[in-house]
Design a protein that fits this description.
globular; inflammatory response; chaperone; protein deglycase activity; alpha/beta; Rossmann fold; about 220 residues; 7-stranded mixed β-sheet; lipoprotein; 10 helices; acetylation
Length: about 220
């Protein structure tokens, strides 16, 4: 199956896709902002968006560079709902989500706009969730210093540079208002951890059961 960047565009914009999921989500009071940068990891983007929307969270996928389709790390192209510039005026959000992907994380780390969003979220004690290499953007922007975090193993040294965090080998780690996770294979656990933080354990467990997601004992 070829997912050529010239032929395949994946839209997460519910209105354009005609999805009933977002109409359900719009009834909820919780709101999430996922920042999508070029080179983001596809699974770490789509899985959290899907699971959060199923749980009734209204999710905005904001393109870092604008409204145009974004080429991800495995050449899947995703259409954001709007630009980050637009989305930043529609806050506040209950959670800001940062996908991983090496190039994507670098782009997040270098963006003054991302820094502004994260600093505002942190100042309001809002939830911040980052996965894989995504947590390195927290380091770059001075977010959550002193927290216990996890990353993809290849991002560990970079994350620990400067000694601003305590490192965890957990698949998902939550410390205060910071949730971090390890990589594509932990995307479901990561997303359900965010749902549990926003909506409660009962909602997260129900969502997992409906999706046949194995409950870890």
């Amino acid at each position: 199956l070829s997912l050529s960047v010239r032929r395949c565009v994946l839209s997460l914009t519910a209105g354009r896709c005609g999805s009933s999921v977002q109409s359900e989500a719009e009834m909820g009071s919780k709101r999430a902002l996922l920042i999508l940068a070029r080179g983001a990891e596809e699974m770490e983007t789509v899985i959290p968006v899907d699971i959060l929307r199923r749980a009734g969270v209204k999710v905005t996928v904001a393109g870092l560079a604008g409204k145009e389709p974004v080429q991800c790390s495995r050449d899947v192209v995703i259409c954001p709902d709007m630009s980050l510039e637009e989305a930043s005026f529609q806050g506040p959000y209950d959670v800001v989500v940062l996908p991983g992907g090496n190039e994507g994380a670098q782009n997040l780390s270098q963006s003054p706009a991302v820094k502004e969003v994260l600093k505002d979220q942190e100042s309001r004690k809002g939830l911040i969730a980052a996965i894989c290499a995504g947590p390195t953007a927290l380091l770059a922007h001075g977010i959550g210093f002193g927290s216990k975090v996890t990353t993809h193993p290849l991002a560990k040294d970079k994350m620990m540079d400067g000694g601003h965090y305590t490192y965890s080998e957990s698949r998902v780690e939550r410390d205060g208002n910071i949730i971090t996770s390890r990589g594509p294979g932990t995307s479901f656990e990561f997303a359900f951890a965010v749902v549990e933080s926003l909506m409660g354990k009962e909602v997260a467990d129900k969502g997992g059961k409906m999706m046949f997601w194995p409950k870890k004992e």
